[in-house]
Amino acid sequence: MVDGTRVEACRSCGSPALRPFLSLGRVPIANALLTVADLAREEPRYPLEVGFCESCTLVQLLFALPADAIFDEAYPYFSSFSEDLLAHAKAHVEGLLAAGRLGPGRLLVEVASNDGYLLRHALERGVPVLGIEPTPGPAAAARALGIPTLQVFFGRGMAAGVRREHGPADVIVANNVMAHVPDLNGFVAGFRELIADDGLITIENPYLRDLIDHAEFDTIYHEHWCYFSCTAVDALMRRHGLSLNDVEYFPRLHGGTLRWHVSPVEARTPRVLAYLDEERQRGLTAFAAYERFGERVAGIADELRVLLARLHAEGATIAAYGATAKGSTLVNFVGIDQRTLAFVADRNPHKQGHWTPGARVPIVPAEALLERQPDYVLLLAWNFADEILRQQAEYRRRGGRFIVPIPSPVIV
Ligand code: DWN
User: How does 281-296 read in b/e, with b if 16+ C-beta sit within 10 Å?
Assistant: First the structure.
């Protein structure tokens, strides 16, 4: 059990005007997979609650755990188990090269470089790269690819050291990490410290608008301290002398992802202004947009609970695919456990042989779908549905059906 803290001030602007709008109960740390020894004792649970800052509009956790309790030695997330994600990362590097942002003499630094899923593509093109990754497993995997990797958490002080040793970064890439840092201002100050005056920072995170529109409540878990809109990112960057200049939207990535383009030099595009305007028009900058979200979430959870109970009562065998962090939130909030789900299949060998926290469902290799041919598979990695349904065509040809839980449960 670690000491969490109740959040009294906005992680971005410091305002005390935080308004709760969703509680998902007391849940275990989503990626704290259990070993057989862990099964002998109850895993710790912590409040999972989010709120809205009336001052800068940032949506954020209202109960926070220390980062080193989450991103520890056993942290199991490796990016390279999705072909679509690898292709997305390669396209990003190629776009930066085509735009002249990268080249032999221009340093690319990736914050949360994980297992080298992105930097490998830059290294192959002769780009000087540096990875920053705090978790030992992914950092070791990146180094095995020849990627220089610092195994530390990124922040202001650390960035100054990198600049002294390596010089300023021409490009900083920060994918699925800005939501994962407790010291949000220290993190962004690190960007300002490290980036060259004419440099570009690209930041990818799931888009808050889609979380609300598609009821992606399962993407809320303790390793995501914040949930970003353009409005909140704009305010955050201005505070550190950076400008949110552009934005790219990837609707099929992680349930809807934005790539924010940030630089020390202001050069705002009509596209980013349109996103900021749409958020105001949609009401995402006011509490009312979030006030009834909890009711929608409860409705989806009830739908899924009733569907699974009906299938189970009919004698159907049900498993799951994707031992995901979001899957922990979903099954623990809905109240599903190993009595309903026979197993969860996952391609990541670091997860296999463990059990999911809370629900305690055994994690097995993906081959189990064909070996055991359950009647239904709950797709906990629904954000990769296109890729996984392609991959599991044979399971489906044999009559297997997937249950896609978000935005509402459907059988495909
Ligand atoms: O922000 C985060 C997102 C980007 O990734 C991190 N906090 C942690 C992680 O979230 P998640 O665990 O909910 O994520 P993913 O990325 O949806 O995980 C997919 C899981 O599914 C992985 O364990 C790998 C597995 N997988 C598989 O077994 N076969 C994935 C694919 C595409 C497959 O074909």
Answer: eeebbeeebbeebbee
Q: Mean pLDDT per segment of 10 residues, for the chain of length 412 residues?
A: 90 98 96 96 96 98 92 86 94 97 94 97 96 95 97 96 97 97 97 98 98 97 98 98 98 97 98 98 96 94 97 97 98 95 97 97 98 98 96 98 96 98
Task: Show the DSSP H helices in 260-356 as ranges.
Answer: 270-282, 288-291, 293-313, 325-334
**Within this chain, do residues 61 and 95 fall inside the same structural domain, yes or no?**
no
Quote the ligand 1 centre to 92 CA distance (angstroms). Answer: 19
Q: For residue 324, how far is its CA from the centre of ligand 1 (angstroms)?
A: 5
Q: Are 401 and 319 in contact (CB under 8 A)?
A: no
* Ligand 1 pocket, mutate which of 135, 324, 333, 367 (most atoms under 8 A from CB): 324
Q: Which domain holds residue 251?
A: 79-266
- For residue range 229-251, what is the model confidence (pLDDT) as tens digits? 999 999 999 999 999 999 999 99
Instruction: Look up residue 338 and give its two tokens.
Output: 């190993």
Give the residue, out of 85, 221, 223, 347, with the most ligand 1 atoms within 8 A of its beta carbon, to mutate for a pocket test: 347
Give the position, in ligand 1's atom list, of the atom nearest the Cα of 82: 32
Which of 232, 266, 300 terminates a domain? The answer is 266
Residue nearest to atom 18 of ligand 1 (CA): 324
- Determine the distance separating the centroid of ligand 1 and the alpha carbon of 153, expressed in angstroms: 21
Residues 97 and 162 in one domain: yes
Task: Note the pLDDT of residue 80.
Answer: 85
311 shares a domain with 179: no
In a domain, 347, yes or no: yes
Same-domain status, 88 and 41 = no
Are residues 248 and 377 part of one domain?
no
Tell me: do 153 and 192 sit in the same domain: yes
Let me know whether 44 and 159 are in one domain: no
- Omega within 30 of 0 (cis) for the link into 136: no
Q: Does some domain include residue 198?
A: yes
For the chain, the farthest-separated pair of C-alpha atoms sits apart, in whole angstroms, at 65
Ligand 1, residues at Cβ distance < 6 Å: 77, 81-82, 176, 223, 254, 322-326, 346-348, 351, 366, 381, 383-384, 387-388, 391
